Structure formats: structure tokens, C-alpha cells
Amino acid sequence: MKAKAIKVLIAKPGLDGHDRGAKVVAHALMEAGMEVIYTGLHKTVDDIIRIALQEDVDVVGLSIMSGAHVPIARKYMQKARDAGIDDKMVVIGGVIPAKDIPQLKKIGISGVFPGGTPFLDIVRFIRDNLTHA
Amino acid sequence: MGVAKYTKNEKGQITDVELQSGIHVKTFYGPEDLERVGFSYEKDLADPGQYPFTRAIHPQGYRSRAWTTRQYTGFGTPYETNERFKLMIANGQTGLNVAFDLPTQMGYDSDDPIAEGEVGRVGMAVDSLRDFEVAFRDINLAEIGTGLTINAVASIMLAMYQAAAEKYGYDPKVISATPQNDILKEMIGRGAWIFPVEPAVKLVGDVIEYSIKALPKTNPVSVCGYHIRESGATPAQEIAFAFLIANAYIDNVLARGYDIDEFVGRFSFNLNVFGNLWEQIAKFRAARKLWARNLKEKYNVKKTSNMFLRGLFGGGGFGLTKAQPQNNIMRGAYYALAAALGGAQTIALCSYDEAYTIPTPESAVISLRTLQLLMDEVGMRDTVDPLAGSYFIETLTKEMEAKIEEESEKIEKMGGIIPAVATGYIQRLVSRQAYEFEKGVQSGEFLKVGVNIYTEGESKEVELHRYNVKTAEKQIRELKRVKRERNQRDVKRTLEALEKATKAGENVMPFLVDCCRAYATVGEMTKIFRDVFGEFEEPGLV
Amino acid sequence: MTSLVEKILNGDEKSAARLISKVEEENSGAYTALSRLLPHTGKANVLGITGPPGAGKSTLAGRLAVAFADSGRNVGVIATDPTSIHTRGAFLGDRLRMKNAEKKKIFIRSMAHRGYPGGLAKAAAGAMYVLEGLGKDVIIFESVGAGQSEKGLFLLCDTIITVFTGDYGDEIQLLKAGLTEIGDILVVNKADKPGAEEAKKDLEAFSSRVNTPGDWHVPVLLTRADSGEGIEVLTDAIKRHWRFVAESGKKEQKKKEKLGLLFIALLKEEFWQRTQKRLKKNRLFKDVLSDVRSGKTDPYSAMQKVLDSLGTTNI
Hints:
The complex is a heterotrimer.
Chain A (H helix, E strand, L loop, with lengths): L6 E5 L8 H12 L3 E4 L6 H11 L3 E6 L4 H15 L5 E6 L6 H7 L3 E4 L4 H11 L4
Parallel strand pairs in A: 1-2, 1-3, 3-4, 4-5
Helix pairs in contact in A: 2-3
Chain B lengths: L4 E4 L5 E5 L5 E2 L5 H6 L4 H5 L22 E2 L2 E2 L4 H13 L4 E5 L2 H4 L23 H7 L9 E5 L4 H14 L9 E3 L3 H6 L8 H18 L6 E4 H6 L4 H20 L12 E6 L4 H22 L11 E6 L11 H15 L4 E4 L11 H16 L14 H23 L3 H6 L2 H19 L26 H16 L2 H17 L4 H9 L4 H12 L9
Parallel strand pairs in B: 4-12, 5-6, 6-7, 7-8, 9-10, 10-11, 11-12
Antiparallel strand pairs in B: 1-2, 2-3
Chain C lengths: L1 H8 L3 H12 L3 H10 L7 E6 L6 H14 L4 E7 L8 E2 L7 H5 L3 E6 L7 H14 L4 E5 L7 H5 L4 E7 L5 H6 L8 E5 L6 H15 L9 E3 L8 H17 L2 H32 L1 H12 L4 H12 L5
Parallel strand pairs in C: 1-5, 1-6, 2-4, 2-5, 6-7, 7-8
Helix pairs in contact in C: 1-2, 1-3, 2-3, 2-6, 12-13
């Protein structure tokens, strides 16, 4: 059997169009040897779920700069459960105040990476926490 | 250190400095440098208010008129925004700059399912004329100028501003609005685009054309190098791309049969301030010169005042850090200094908590005070362009000018700015640069106080503006009421007229004003555009 | 795996996506599942799109997917992207250019090239059978770009579209590289750009030379994938070609060829995998390998030595 490449979906949910962070992280993950799909802007949670499902990615990264991270995360996790893909790792990056992190974890987000998190930390987190069946 | 690349020898002495735009800085400068770059007083500098306006567009500089202070403001419902406007005006702010929430920027009403969680979050929610009536209540629209920071639907917001002003009894001829109305930069960075390139640029042209005819005191476009820079462009690219974009809009209006001198004097620019202090100052000075030259030589502009680069220099959002947030107050002060030494007409600063969320009233006032302090306390109005004649600054300004032209030629060679944006060439270029820069910050190549030097471990959190979850409910209730109470026949008639005009390729502005007067909603008007124009296809990452 | 196959046959996208991953990972269980799916396949029309980077392949694939979906077909897209030689990572960027296709009930799957020892074609073939099992009756392959590695992939296709543009000076190079030999339809995309008409003329002159009488006449078409111009004419040409391959018996012939080649490719891969496992435990192999590395033995005689020791009957 061949060693599996880690496949990551970098998604921009909602109407916010600030994509510098999402693109920069996509570059970093690609350079770390991962296969990266970028959704592009203005995606609904339903769009993202469908892409994650069809592509059978290992990780879904939500990039949110608008401050709406808690409602979006909640909606995403609910719909992921409905679609039966809540086994995929979900991480969030963007403008995330520290006080919101416990709440996001409770919702089911594995990792939270506020702006400025070193790439290496993100890469390491994904590699260490990914359990392949 | 900062954004430039520094080379040091084993003793730790700096042996080379390379600015972001690719210019190398020497240990010191002298007359031979001016000679090397071919500096001439008449050609490159001239007196303030004289072509090519490197020093200032007005002969008196800040002596006759200080810069306008115009903080980016808006959140929640129009009621809350109206209060904040009045607070800022009471504290001495001289212009308004409206922030809109994302559903408004993207042309959706507050009750659209896609708007869920976003209503009133990053700016003011706007659905119909009723919201503008509330937002601008008790504000003297004949005296204050208003920036409308919106692009894809700038046409709708300007129409609504006119309709609101009329409601309050102002003649459209006296109101002064500055819709941002720069869609090409949204496609490069910031991402609030809706329609494909061609119709999107046509809408920009509609706003400009309509302003020529009906809104003589309105500045119909503010070209934003700002967001291009935030997305990863160098300062030289920021100016080069902004000017190419401005030229694309000029060409659109010229093709409609107008004379350049009829409208170009009302173009303005929104440029960024973060980065290396000297590079910023040289950038602004070179930009003023190049813009004047572009208009005079390429477009044959006759009237001197039409060659002015009028600029809002400010923001600096990308320079702010979440770590040690109070440091952002000092950063803002230095950025403001760069803007003032660069000859800004208007300055706005990101507030120190903006790395987290929209500003609290306290932090917004601190930014305003920072600007007032610079204006009234430390002597920034004493003399025009105080750095003129500096061997270093003049050399750097000349070198910057050459760099900007070089970046501009690269794009022209590949067919111009529109294909460069439509195919994603620029987006890929700047995102690659952003990645390289970020790597440099993480490796410590670019020093950032509180981030990779002088760190304090766990960073303290600031008191944040709290998003009011009731905002959406309130806004939607209001929208429902407006929809119930308005004259449905007028709405139907005006929307049908808009659709017809849109399909026929007419200037949509007069039709939008009618729709606004009838309380048609932003979502209803935008839907017509979406159906007729389609949507922009975002280019790929690679 | 049994339930996975049943779920796929019942139209479950998630199971299909999972099985494609297993195929990509070269999981042997996936082969069992594929052999159970195979009887349900063979009827779909398979379309391959190739051409140089930047020609607009993804956008065109997206447009065609939407066009076929709108005409009532059940469409699946498999888009392949190169894997970086340095980092082994990949940007799977094609999907982003198929914005409209995303809105329809179209299944899109991105695959990185991953430098498969058995060739991309093997994973792609598996993915194709999975999509057919899922009920897709039009499958569109978007290739990495021009090159020899495409050939295996295109054996899977009934129709191959090669996309060019007018603003590339590379046409001649591509002709030399033999790219048009595998094009059943040639498209000059970005028809609004200067040079498009000229490129069309050049390609027409070229294709008329390779056409053999009585055979398929290779059409050269102008499109604008960005605006959708020319897509209707293109879909008509595609349908015409599908009829041609069906009526001329080429589809049936190719299918047999395809299955034979797939069998050989799978066997080759499996032989090598097994041999490799045995070799890793083989003392002589290790010694000979180090002799080769140190220059004591040359690779040619080393190979002979190992083959002799393995014997020919019990691989």
C-alpha cells in the first residue's frame, strides 16, 4: 500500500473576501507536501461540505476574518454531521480572539490558528493529529 | 528589521538594505547621488503647487488647509452608526467614511439566508433608503464629505446617498460623496466582487459619468492601491497597479465621448502607509509626480488642478499586530507621520484593536487624536514638504519613480491591467509575495516588535467591540416594515425600468436613484445586475 | 467493501469519494470493490481534455460539464494536477475554475499526479469505474497538461479534445510533440484574443494532412470558455464523435484494448510490488546493490545475477 498524501481543503465560508491568509496557508501546506484544494471566495457551508465530501479530504480548514467564526463553525459541524463527514479534522484560521477558542473546541473544531500562527505549528498539528484508518 | 531586507557583517553592522520595492539603500547620500539619478529641481521637484507636484498639490500645503481626518466607521444598524458618526464629528473629525457590512457589500438584503451571522458585523447594514435616512440624520451633508467604502454596488450606494440627501432637502449639486467604486482592486485583494470584469468596469464608468452630469461635488472613484498592498504587493507595485486601474476607468469614460478635463480632476486615491518609513514617503512623492505626468503626457490633460493626485493615505491594517496591541497606537502615529510627510489630503488610521475586530469608541477616538496631535502639536503644518532637497529622499523618490514605471511596463507588456486581473496573474503574483513575506516574518528575517522580537509570551487581550446579536433581528424587522409600507407599484415600476436599462446597456444611475426613492432594496437592485451580468469567475491559485 | 459497493451503486457520493481515495492509495481491497463495480460500467461517454497550461482546460471542462448536465446527463469530472517534484505537495486548483459546475449536481474529483509507479492512468481508470458505478453517464477527464504521461490516461477516453490558444507561440512545439495525434477535436480557446483565427487556420491545415479518407474528420473550433461562446458547437461536435466511435465500432474496439492494457498495467504493478517485497529480504540482492553503488559491479551484470538467483518460474 502506498503512503497516503494528506489532502486538505482550504475554504472561505461566508461573504468575507480577505483571502491573503487563506492563500498564504495554502502555499505553506503545499510546500509541506500536502495536496491542497482552495475553494475560492464566498462559499456557503453547503458548498464546502459538498467539496469536502467529493474530494474525501482529510482536513477542512476554514478561514474566517469577519468575526463570524462561532456561528459559521457551529453551522459547519451540524451540516458535517448530517452529511456523515464529521470524522474529518476541522481547523479554523483567521481573526480569532483567544477567548473564543474554548468555545470553538467545544463545537468540535480540532485546531484554532489565529493570524500569525507559524506555518510549522499548523503543519505539525495536522500531521500529529491525523489518524488514518 | 521591518519590511526591508538587511544584510549584516559579523560585527552586526548593516552592510546592505534592500527595500521591498527592490531599491538598495546606501550608508549615506550626497550631491553625487542626485547627479547619478539625474535629479533636476525644475523637472523633478519644482515649487509646491507647481507641476509635477512632487512636493504638494497646493502651494501652501498644510498651511492653507490641514488634512481631512476620516476614520472608517460603521457597524450594526444605521442607528448605532449614526451615533458613532456624531461622536466622531463632536470630537473634531472633518469627514465621514462609511463601513458597510458584508451582505451590503455583496448586494444581499439582511434577510437573505446567505447573510446569516454577518448582518451589521463588519460595518453598517443597509437594505433600503430608510437606512440611509437614519444613518445621516442630523448630519450636515452640505458641509461634510462622505466616503462610501463599497465597490461592487457603489452605484447603488451613491444613488441612495443622493436620494437620502434629497429627502433631507439638500440639492444633489452640494453633496460631496466619495464612493470607493474601484472594482478591479477588489478582484486583486479584499474580494468583495460580484460581477464579471467587463460589466463591473462598466458600472464604475456609469458612476463617474453620472457624477459628471448630476453630482458636481462628488468624487466618483477612489482607486485603492491600499488593498493591493495589503494582499502582498510591494509599494512600487501598489502605485503601478493603482494607476493602471485608474487609467482603465479613464478609458471607459473617454470611450463614452467625454473630455478628460471634465472628470479626471475628481479621481482620488486610497494608498497604504505601513512599511519602511522612507520608502512610503518616497512612494507618495513619486506617485504625485507620475500621476500628473500620466495625465499630462498620456491623456493630454489641460487644466492644472486636474493633474492633482488627491489622496487618502492611511490605514496600515496589515502592519498592526495582535500581540501587544497597544503598540499599534505607536505604529499608527508613525504611519500618520509617513502620510503627512508624504503630503496626504486625507488621513485615516486603523485603530489599535482593528487586528481583532471593528474599533471601540475609545480606540476610534485615540486614532483621531493621533492625527490631531500630529497636526496641531508637533509642527506638521509649518512648512510644505519638509524633506524636499534631502539627498536621500530625492534620490529615493527618483528611484521609486523608476521602479513604479518598471512594474507598470511589465503589466502593459502582457496586455494591460484588465487581462492581468481577469486571468489572475496579479493575484498569483501578490499571493506568492505575501507567502514569501510571511515566511520572512516567521523566520525572523523581518523584525516585528512583539511578534518575533521583544515578545512577552501570552499576549494581553484588549477590550473588544462586541457584536450585538440582536442587530440582525432588529435590521430584518425594519426591512420587513419598509417592504410592507412602501408603494409596491412604484417599486415594481422602478425595478422594471432598471432591468430594461441594464439590459440595454444604458447608464444605470438615474434608474437606481428612482429605485432608491421608491425604497427598493439593495438585494432587489443587485439581483437584476446578477441576472443580467452574471458573476465574476475567480481565477485559480496557481 | 461490500457495503461500499452497494452504496455507490445506490448513488452515495460519500462512498464513491472514499473508494476513489482507496484506489489512489493502491489499497488492495479497492481492487475487489472495483471488480464488483465493473459489470455496471462501460456505457458512459468518456471525454478527455488536454492542452498546454493556461489554455483554459478547467474552465472549458466546467462549461462542458454544465452543458451536458443541462441536457439531462449525469456528469462526473476527474481533474488531475501535477505533484511538485520538490515537496511532493500539490495545488489542486482546477475545481476553482469550475464554479458553475459546482452548483449543479456534478461530481468533481481532483487528483494529484503523485508520480504513480503504475501511471496516473491506473488510478484514473479506477476513479472512472467508481463514477460510472455511481451512475455517471458522462465522464470528463481534465489532464495535467501536454506530455507523454497523458497517453495512458487518454486510452480511457472515447473522445479527446486538445485545447490551444492564439496567444501562445507554442503551437508548433505542441505539434512537434505529437499532441494533436491524440486530439479528436481541436479547440482554439480564448477566441477573442489576437492570433486565435490564425491558430485555427494553422491547425486546420495540420489536421487536414493527418486525416485519412473515410475516417473521422478532425474539426477545429473556436471557443471562449470564459463567456461560454462556442460551447454549443463544441458539444455538438463531441456528440457527433461519440456517434462516430459507436457506429464505426471504434468504441468497442477501444474498450477491449483498454481492458487489456489495464490488465497488463495492474499485473506489472503487482509483479513489481511483490518482487520488491521479496528482494528486500534477499541477501544476495542487498550485496549486489551495495556492489553496484560502490562500483564493484555494473548495473547490467548485477541485474542478470539477481534474475538468475530468483529463477524465472516462481515470481
